[in-house]
Amino acid sequence: MLATAKILLRVFSCVPGGLLLLPLGFLLWKSFQISSELLIHVEKYLLWESLRNTILLLISVLLLSSIWGTLLAWIISRFQFVGRSFFRWALLLPLALPAYVVSFVWLANFGQSMPLMQLSLILSFCLFPYIYLIVLESFERIDQNHLEVASSLGVTRADVIRRIYRPMLLPALMAGISLVGMETLADFGSVSVFNFSVFTTLVYRSWFSLQSLETAAFLAMLHILLLLVFVFMTSLTSKGRLVDKNSGAPRRALLKKCSTFQSWGMGFIVMLIWSIAFLFPLFQLVQWGVKDLGAFVDARLLERISNSLIIAAAAALVTLIFAMILTLAQRYSKTSFQNYVSRLSVIGYGIPGTVIAVGWMVSLAVAFGSFHHLPYVALLALTLGLATRFLSLAQRPLMTSSERISWTIEESARSLGASTGRVLLKIHKPLLARAAGIGFLFVFIDTLKEMPMTLLMRPYGWDTLSVRVYQFTSDGMWEEAAAPSLVLVAVSLVPLWFLRKRMQ
After folding, report:
1. What is the model's pTM?
2. pLDDT in tens, 43-67
3. 345, 20 contact by CB (below 8 A)
């Protein structure tokens, strides 16, 4: 039975990668058709500036996001201070704000000066909750018994950090860094607001300005190559690191009681980061929205909300199924082929939505001609495209939790006659439930905010909140974009509320 299950897992684990390769295969074919004249023009005037800006932006965002996320996770998990219970879940609220919305708020208030620094700050404040949540969970799984044993043996604090904290936290930190890095590499909306030349904008300009699909395909392949290098480096960094194999509930480390001065100091640090990341852009949107209350009374507002929720729920469910299959296949099939399949399946998160959308559109056009008038075909393609795009969001938390499940417990259950299904139901399900919920909500929130793929692949007349925001911001109508942006934020807060419940 176990052998049959392994074979099925291997077969089905190839589906996400196949769905990703379908559109990318066409783009690869088109990239070889680029003319030498266009290739020389791109290499001479566009390529190196965009490559430099992409790498600098990636490094800056990763550094700042790691600082904010790790610092806040450490403070929340180790210290008792004023407002701790509130901030423990409130630090997730920046996820409700799309980065392109925060970008036009910053641009309206501070102008366009030092765009690299501004974009690095904006993206790091929007994305650090990914690192914060994953690292916080690892901090809270450090067993107090381990710390007490180390203390009784006279182990120094430096050795405790090196032998206990670092092996436990590094896999979680690298998982968060991987998510933030791929999100940064795929960002299009924020860099477009600041007219900052990176690979995503270069692909878009080649497609629409140069009217050359071949050039856009060639640059998209270079972008994917850069993404593969990044994925390889992050996986190499965490290779061979130890994680906690304790599958039971750990005895959490006690919160350190602070003096009044320390308590207010900790609260101030957390409040400052949270205010910049969430309160400031939200306040500006509310201020703009109050000026035009009539914008909230839109005959199609409920329809756009419904469309946003439907596509987000469908994409999150399909993504979670793919992620669970990949996680189990990776656990039970320790082969090089399975490692390659898993790595291929999750790189979609770093590929711009425009690239995936173009590949799907052309692929479907071959089969159906114009498919936008076929609503079910368009929505199915959009759902699968979003699932392959955001698969890493659901797979990373599941992989981190799966690595903690002890093989000893599973082997003991099998020795007592438990079937494969019963092992999955009684052991894996409860231990992976929290990670699965986090992955589902991550995908749900990101799909609500996703704009370029939905804009290009949606059926005719089928709008979402993010599409409506784009229609305003593309015309520079920032204040008019406040109303749909606020509704988008409000809708995104709903899954964050459920995520708050899971954190308690």
Report:
1. 0.79
2. 777 788 888 999 999 999 999 999 9
3. yes
Number of domains observed in the structure of the chain: 1
Nearest to 320 by CA among 431, 438, 423: 438
Cβ–Cβ < 8 Å for 427, 12: no
- Yes or no: say if 66 and 156 are a contact pair by the CB < 8 Å rule: no
Question: pLDDT digit string (tens) for 187-235?
Answer: 888 888 888 888 888 877 777 666 677 787 888 888 888 888 887 787 7
Angle formed at CA 132 by CA 127 and CA 137, multiple of 5 degrees:
145
Among residues of the chain, what percentage have pLDDT more than 70? Answer: 79
Distance from first CA to last CA of the chain, Å, rounded? 38
The amino acid that residue 6 corresponds to is: K
The CA distance from 328 to 398, in Å, is 9
Dist. CA 218–CA 473, nearest whole Å: 29
Residue of 89, 182, 180 whose CA lies nearest to 136 = 89
Cβ-Cβ contacts under 8 Å for 360 (sequence gap 6 or more) = 22, 23, 381, 384, 385, 457
At CA 11, angle to CA 7 and CA 15, rounded to 5?
A: 160
CATH of the domain at 118: 1.10.3720.10
What the block records as the tokens of 355 is 């690239």
The bridge status of strand 256-257 relative to strand 79-80 is parallel
Q: What is the DSSP string of 64-92?
A: HHHHHHHHHHHHHHHEE-TTHHHHHHHTT
Q: Are residues 97 and 286 in contact, defined by beta-carbon separation less than 8 angstroms?
A: no
DSSP string of 364-389, one letter each residue: HHHHHSS-TT-HHHHHHHHHHHHHHH
Phi/psi of residue 478, each to 5°? -70, -45
**Which residue in 93, 122, 185, 99 sits closest to 466, CA to CA?**
99
What is the number of other CB atoms lying within 10 angstroms of the CB of residue 354? 23
Residue ranges of the alpha helices (H) in 187-300? 189-193, 199-208, 213-237, 260-274, 280-291
Read off the tokens for 168. 């436990």
Q: What is the pLDDT of residues 109-150, one digit of tens each?
A: 888 888 899 999 999 999 999 899 888 877 776 655 555 555
Domain range enclosing 101: 2-292+299-503
Q: Which two tokens stand for residue 499?
A: 């995520």
What the block records as the tokens of 273 is: 């980061």
Largest CA distance in the chain: 72
DSSP state of 256: E
**Backbone dihedral angles phi then psi of residue 385, each to the nearest 5 degrees:** -65, -45
